[in-house]
Every structure is written in structure tokens, then in C-alpha cells.
Amino acid sequence: MGRVAGSYGLRGWVKVDPEGAERDALTGAREWTIGARAYGVEEAKLHGATVLAKLAGIESREQALKLKGKNVAVPRAALPEPEDGHYYLGDLVGLEVVNGQGVKLGMVKRLFWSGAHDVMEVAGERSRLIPWVPAVVLNVDLAKRRIEVEWGADW
User: Domain residues for 71?
Assistant: First the structure.
């Protein structure tokens, strides 16, 4: 859901670069897993494009800096169900991607934030980067594990 970018202040707060639109999910979660360890979230808030958090057991800048570069995850069960038309990026990984002509482009390998919007990396006979925007993503069917896109097979 993000990556620890560093410390914030002197009292053990961490600064997290969230992946895509995951900021609200991070600020609402009461527990994060960083590396292989779970941390209680005492407080979390938005700060520009980042999330700042005070984690239980992290009391100094030095302790916070030891987490720098590590991935931040939240237990799926702790997340609220997304609204219609919205998805957690992790739920999309592994779905088949098919264009409007029925050509299988591959499987979603990962999604990431480009600075303007989310992007799907699709692995098939070759790798493709497909923007996650309404003009391109036509339909998502989680039950059938399939995403339909407006994307040429030769693009």
C-alpha cells in the first residue's frame, strides 16, 4: 500500500509514500505491517501527497529511519469494502486483461502510481503498461477475474 520514505520530526513519526489512491486506506487502518513486523497505528494523517504516522514502539527519529525503504501493508480484513467502481490495487493483481476485440493481453503483474494516474503492468507475450483511466478500462469483473480494456494488441 506504500513505502516508508523516511522519518518526520524527532518523535518517531514515519512518512509514507502511498501507492495510488491508497492514502485513505492507510490513514484509516489501526495496524500496519512493515517488513515482517506488525505495528499499531497510534495516529495517521494526510500530509500533502504523503501519509504521516505515529507507530507504537517507534519513539525516535533513529527508530523511524530504520524503517525507511520498507513496504507498508495493511491486513485485507481491516480495510473497508470499496465503493462500486473502486478497487484495491492488490485485488486486481493476477486478473486477465482482454481488449475489446477479445484478444488476451496478459495478466496484471502490478499497479503503480505514475504521478498522474494508476498504471497496470500487464505481463503476457510481452510486457505492457496500460493507464488505469476510464477511457481505457472498460470493465472489471472480479468474479470472472477479468479486466476489459480499450487497448490495441499491437500497442
Answer: 2-78
Query: Are 100 and 57 in the same domain?
Result: no
Listed in sequence order, the residues at least 6 apart from 36 whose beta carbon sits closer than 8 Å to its beta carbon are none
Residues 138-143, mean pLDDT to the nearest whole number? 95
Look at the block and give the residue holding cell 468474479.
Answer: 143
126 and 69, same structural domain?
no
Question: What span, in angstroms and rounded, lies between the C-alpha atoms of 152 and 5?
Answer: 37
Evaluate if residue 79 carries a pLDDT over 80. no
Domain end call among 57, 78, 99: 78
Average pLDDT over residues 32-52: 93
Q: CA-CA distance, 31 to 113, in Å (whole number)?
A: 23
CB atoms within 10 A of CB 126: 8
Average pLDDT over residues 23-36: 88
The answer to whether the predicted template modeling score (pTM) of the entire model surpasses 0.90 is no
Point out which residues pair with 149 in neighbouring strands: 99, 137
